[in-house]
Amino acid sequence: DVQLVESGGGSVQAGGSLRLSCTASGDPYTKYCMAWFRQAPGKEREGVAALYSDASYETWYSDSMKGRFTISKDNAKNTLYLQMNSLKPEDTAMYYCARRRYGACSPNADRYAYWGQGTQVTVS
Question: What does the alpha-carbon distance between residue 110 and residue 97 come to, in Å, rounded to a whole number?
């Protein structure tokens, strides 16, 4: 079965940068959507960015992350990345990598079948 493992979280001052990684294993498919979500204490899980893994590499970003966050994928390493720049205290959350079993990218967390354990990002 598909397994996702995130890394790269940590503590950073406002205005700083972090790069999150999500390595996938056990994945026999080549066309699917992978995404980053985040969840702050007391808040619902929200979509951050998504990327469809075919020749189009179509991407989606939440409006509040556009211009600051960049999603990308290294197929050779089977790893999804989230480059986060100009971080703000309100970006503090647990960040999760997720993958749909099939279908287009969506900001709806319910559409995703596979999840990583999360990596904490704290911006002060």
Answer: 13
Radius of gyration of the chain (CA): 13
Q: Provide the pairing of β-strand 3-7 with 10-12.
A: unpaired
Q: Which two structure tokens, joined as six digits, stand for 16?
A: 């700083």
How far, in Å, CA of 52 to CA of 106, rounded?
10
Please say whether the beta carbons of 99 and 109 come within 8 A. no
Question: What are the backbone dihedrals phi and psi of residue 123, each rounded to the nearest 5 degrees, phi first?
Answer: -120, 125
User: Do strands 93-99 and 33-39 pair parallel, antiparallel, or not at all (unpaired)?
Assistant: antiparallel
Each residue's pLDDT tens digit, 56-97: 778 899 998 889 999 999 988 889 999 999 999 999 999 999
